[in-house]
Design brief:
Distance between the termini: 102 Å
Helix content: 40-55%
Number of domains: 4
Structural class: alpha+beta
CATH topology of the largest domain: Beta-Lactamase
Largest sheet: 6 strands, antiparallel
CATH architecture of the largest domain: 2-Layer Sandwich
Number of helices: 18
Radius of gyration: 35 Å
Length: about 575
């Protein structure tokens, strides 16, 4: 029963007692009061009989067995299902880029929070449901970094994760958590057949992949929250849907500009980006009024009104900036005299809790921005920041997955992908390509004599020597342990022999020195040409490799090109 009604009834009952029962007053006034009280009593009784029944909320008792605070699960609505499917596809593409033999699955909490439900997987080795209390899952949920488990170490917890089969004991699983609103809601599991195949780089990449998916969950949530009937909100939500994660950030600037043109009435729009020194910013996009900004110039954060956007993580708003702020310039000192602007609304864009961008709209006349202006610009800034952060995470993982951790060159898989792309392009344009394979002579002796750290130093320095002596269009990769591969684009062997010889000479003449240990090392180089020698990728590798070993057989420090002599197909010419 409603408490207010109880109090009203009690007060009325007391009044009726005084008027009708004790004392027994007489007179016209008391008679009128009796009628009024009687009427009120009838009204209240009528309300009690016709009112809605009281609603009682059941008591919710906390579970004493709950081990972690998690979100009760995410429901992926139909209108954002395509984005969710795209996210899962990206997850598995990145795992395969790390190691094509890995088996991966993505799990999310169900509505009860008691189980993880498989969303998708690359192989049917994972179970559909995993209990949340599984110790492997609990460990993954509580660790910021990806966690590695070997089959023999986790005992019965292993059978909760995988379908029944015979296990050798050397298998392992690598897991990274996925967060939503700072609570674990799922995980990425990667299974390998032997624990020795898991490198430390792989663990770091999977940790980054978990962070990437967590950011994407925020993106999906933003899409759902912003899918409103309001046209402006719908347009902001569509910004997330329409942007390709692989696109350049400049395309995103232009999308923001187009939305601002629809949303706001301004004289000037600027998007500024903070520089690495943390003390200057650069205007990366401007719209409207022109002539007041130099796109190549760096502006001081401490000496300009626009710099205020980077000095605080709060929205800046003023209808009279000259009165409200002490700075004498919008971008630099004194420019307010030439370019008069009175009103500004500037919103900082946060990425990883740091202000990286600032979006500002200005009017030359004094103008009080309305609440919806501020809310929309803040919403746009939030969406913009999520998108930039998402792109940065993607490209960081993409670069790590493609490049060798020691040398920074393309790894074997990435090099082969580019190799096939360039062969296809050469076929279309009828170009020639030269493949060069280089191998360090007697490198095992370096490792055995001076240790693997010295060997790593030599491999890095040789990579630098090679990169400095090829064109920007040429593609350099680390083909194997001490082997390097170069694709020399739109050229032939006769033109490349001098280039290869300069690389060989530069390595031979380089003084490798580390911790007072000086060594010299030479290299053998083999060359084969597409399509002159073959139009097949694998055959071109075999022929360049054979030419390289021919150079080694002659003592190394040579450039050897593949050649056909008479009817023989394995003859070589060697150039010293």
């Amino acid at each position: 029963m409603n408490v207010n009604r109880l109090i009203t009834a009690a007060i009325l009952a007391l009044v009726c007692f005084l008027l009708f029962v004790y004392p027994d007053p007489q007179g016209d006034l008391y008679t009128i009061l009796r009628y009024i009280a009687f009427g009120l009593l009838i009204v209240i009784l009528y309300q009690f009989t016709t009112s809605d029944p009281d609603i009682y909320e059941p008591e919710v008792k906390p579970s004493v067995e709950q081990k972690t605070s998690v979100s009760p699960g995410l429901i992926i609505r139909e209108e954002i299902h395509d984005q969710y499917e795209q996210l899962l596809k990206m997850v598995f593409n990145m795992v395969i880029a790390i190691n094509e033999n890995y088996k991966a699955a993505f799990f999310m909490l169900d509505g009860s929070g008691n189980h993880l439900t498989i969303q998708s997987s690359t192989k049917d080795v994972f179970k559909e449901l995993i209990p949340t209390e599984n110790e492997v899952i609990q460990t993954i949920f509580f660790q910021q970094e990806a966690v590695l488990f070997q089959q023999t170490d986790v005992g019965g917890n292993w059978v909760d994760l995988f379908v029944e089969k015979s296990w050798r004991g050397s298998e392992c699983v690598l897991g990274a958590r996925v967060l939503y609103k700072n609570a674990p809601v799922g995980c990425i599991l990667v299974q390998a057949d032997h624990f020795s195949t898991i490198q430390e780089r792989d663990r770091n990449l999977l940790t980054s992949l978990g962070s990437f998916v967590s950011l994407s969950m925020v993106k999906l949530d933003n899409i759902e929250k912003l899918s409103l009937d309001n046209f402006f909100h719908y347009q902001i939500a569509n910004l997330l849907n329409s942007m390709d994660i692989q696109s350049e950030v400049r395309g995103l600037y232009k999308k923001v500009r187009d939305l601002c043109r629809s949303f706001f009435n301004y004289d000037k729009l600027t998007i500024s980006e903070i520089q690495t020194d943390g003390e200057h910013y650069k205007v990366v996009l401007e719209d409207g009024y022109s002539g007041d900004v130099d796109p190549e110039k760096l502006y001081s954060i401490s000496k300009s009104i626009h710099g205020r956007g980077f000095r605080s993580d709060e929205t800046m708003e003023s209808s009279d900036s000259t009165a409200d702020y002490y700075e004498t310039g919008r971008f630099e000192e004194g420019d307010l005299e030439e370019h008069k602007f009175n009103s500004i609304l500037a919103v900082p864009v946060l990425i990883n809790d740091n202000v990286k961008y600032c979006i500002a709209i200005e009017k030359q006349q004094s103008y009080n921005f309305i609440v919806s202006d501020r809310n929309l610009l803040e919403l746009l800034a939030l969406t913009f920041g999520s998108m930039v952060s998402w792109q940065q995470q993607y490209w960081k993982m993409h670069e790590n997955a493609m490049h060798d951790g020691l040398t920074g060159l393309l790894n074997h898989k990435a090099f082969m992908d580019r190799f096939n792309e360039e062969i296809s392009r050469a076929k279309r344009h009828q170009h020639s390509i030269v493949l060069s394979i280089l191998d360090l002579d007697s490198f095992k002796l370096i490792n055995d004599t001076y240790g693997h750290l010295y060997g790593d130093y030599v491999i890095r320095e040789v990579a630098n020597i090679i990169k400095e002596r090829v064109r920007n269009i040429d593609i350099v990769g680390r083909y194997g342990g001490e082997e390097y591969s170069i694709l020399l684009i739109n050229t032939d062997i006769d033109k490349i022999i001098p280039v290869a010889q300069r690389i060989i000479d530069a390595i031979a003449n380089f003084s490798f020195s580390m911790k007072n240990v000086d060594v010299r090392i030479t290299t053998s180089c083999g060359l084969a040409e597409y399509p002159k020698d073959t139009d097949q990728v694998n055959e071109l590798i075999i022929k360049a490799d054979a030419a390289m070993y021919k150079a080694k057989s002659k003592g190394g420090n040579l450039v050897s090109k593949y050649s056909v002599i008479g009817s023989r197909t394995n003859g070589m010419e060697t150039t010293t």
